[in-house]
Design a protein that fits this description.
This protein is 32% helix and 18% strand. By secondary structure, the chain is α/β, with parallel strands linked by helices.
Length: 336
C-alpha cells in the first residue's frame, strides 16, 4: 500500500482518511483508483467514497444476501428442519452454515467450511476464505463496502451472533491499520443487540430491525427495546436508534416513547453529528404524534465524556446528550 500512495502523491490525504479508504476499498488498486476525485483549479486530488461505483457494489452485496433470505422465508417450515449430512437448498442447516461462514468473513475469524462446499450460500465476489500459516481456514471480505452492505441484515438474524466469541477475538486485530471505525461500530451494535446497554430501560437483549429510508418509521410494535440499524449506502445521520415504549400511560396522558440515538466513533476529532441530526428532528417524529417522545443522544467513544443537558429550542427538544466509553458497552471491545 505504501507504494500505491507514493504513486498517487497528488491525493490530499490525512492518516484517518487513508485508513478509511483502505478499509472501504479492501486495498484493491482498482477500487482505490475509483475513489480518487480530481482536484479543481490546480488543487490536489481528494478521496471520495460517495460515487455510483461503490453504490453498485453495496447494492450487489446486499441483493445477494436479501435474495438468500427471501428464498429461505418462502418456506417457514424450514425452521423445523435441521439437515446434518445432505444438502437441501435454504434448509435451516444452510441458514446456519451461511451465518456461521459470514460471522467469520466479517471479522476475519475461522470459518467452519470452505466456500467451495457451500458455494450457493456465499457471494464469492466479495467474501472468501483461505488457510493461514497455522493451518486454520479464515474468512475475509474483499472490501469494507460489501461488509457494510450485509451487516445490518445479518445482525437482524439472531443466528449470526448467537456465538459471541467474536467480541472476545476482536481485540486481536482491532489495531490493524486497515481496520477502521466501522468494524468497531459493527461489534458495538452486535454487543448492544445481544446484551443491551447499562442504562435505565435498556438492560436486556433487543430485537433488531433494519431500515432503508433516511427517516425510518420508529412506531413500536412491542414493549421490548428495538434496535434499528440503517442499511443505506454511506448513511451519515446516525449509526443506530433504540426505541423503547413505556408501560401504559396514566389516564389522560400520552404514552412515553424513549428514543436513543447512537453515534459511534473512535476518531479523536469528529463532526458534530448531534447538531446535524437535530436539525432534522421534526421529520423523525412526524408519525409519532400519539406519543410523548423522549429523545436522548448517545455518543459511544474511546474515552467517554461528560453528560450534557439541552433545553428546548424552536428546532430541538429538551434532551440529554450522553457520552459513554466503548469499554462501558463491552469490556471485550474496549480500547486503550
Amino acid at each position: 500500500m505504501t507504494h500505491w500512495w507514493e504513486w498517487n502523491r497528488q491525493v490530499k490525504l490525512d492518516d484517518d482518511t487513508r485508513k478509511k479508504a483502505e478499509d472501504f476499498t479492501g486495498r484493491i488498486p482498482l477500487f482505490l483508483k475509483m475513489c480518487v476525485v480530481k482536484g479543481k483549479n490546480g488543487e490536489k486530488d481528494e478521496i471520495s467514497l460517495e460515487n455510483e461505483f461503490f453504490r453498485d457494489i453495496f447494492e450487489e452485496a446486499a441483493g445477494f444476501e436479501m435474495n438468500l433470505q427471501n428464498e429461505y422465508k418462502k418456506d417457514p417450515d424450514n425452521l423445523r428442519r435441521y439437515v446434518c449430512r445432505r444438502f437441501y437448498p435454504y434448509s435451516f442447516a444452510n441458514v446456519f452454515r451461511h451465518c456461521s461462514y459470514m460471522n467469520g468473513a466479517l471479522y476475519n475469524r475461522t470459518v467452519p467450511w470452505s466456500s467451495r462446499i457451500i458455494s450457493n450460500l456465499v457471494d464469492h465476489r466479495y467474501f472468501y476464505d483461505k488457510v493461514d500459516d497455522t493451518g486454520m481456514r479464515v474468512g475475509y471480505h474483499t472490501c469494507g463496502v460489501s461488509r457494510e452492505a450485509v451487516f445490518p441484515m445479518l445482525l437482524s438474524n439472531n443466528l449470526l451472533f448467537g456465538d459471541t466469541n467474536f467480541l472476545q477475538s476482536l481485540s486481536d486485530f482491532i489495531h490493524n491499520s486497515s481496520v477502521t471505525g466501522y468494524t468497531i461500530e459493527q461489534a458495538i451494535l452486535a454487543s448492544i443487540a445481544f446484551f443491551g446497554l447499562d442504562l435505565p430501560r435498556l438492560r436486556e437483549s433487543m430485537d433488531v430491525r433494519v431500515f432503508h429510508d433516511p427517516v425510518p418509521n420508529l412506531k413500536p410494535k412491542t414493549n421490548r427495546p428495538v434496535l434499528h440499524i440503517p442499511q443505506i449506502f454511506n448513511y451519515k445521520a446516525i449509526d443506530g436508534v433504540i426505541v423503547k415504549k413505556e408501560d401504559p400511560a396514566s389516564e389522560g396522558n400520552k404514552q412515553r416513547l424513549f428514543i436513543y440515538l447512537l453515534r459511534i466513533t473512535v476518531a479523536e476529532k469528529h463532526e458534530d453529528s448531534h447538531k446535524k441530526f437535530f436539525d432534522q428532528w421534526k421529520k423523525w417524529i412526524t408519525i409519532l404524534v400519539e406519543f410523548d417522545v423522549v429523545p436522548e443522544f448517545i455518543w459511544i467513544t474511546k474515552k467517554g465524556g461528560e453528560e450534557k443537558r439541552h433545553l428546548q429550542t424552536g428546532q430541538c427538544p429538551a434532551h440529554t446528550e450522553r457520552n459513554i466509553s466503548i469499554s462501558e458497552v463491552s469490556k471485550h471491545i474496549g480500547m486503550t
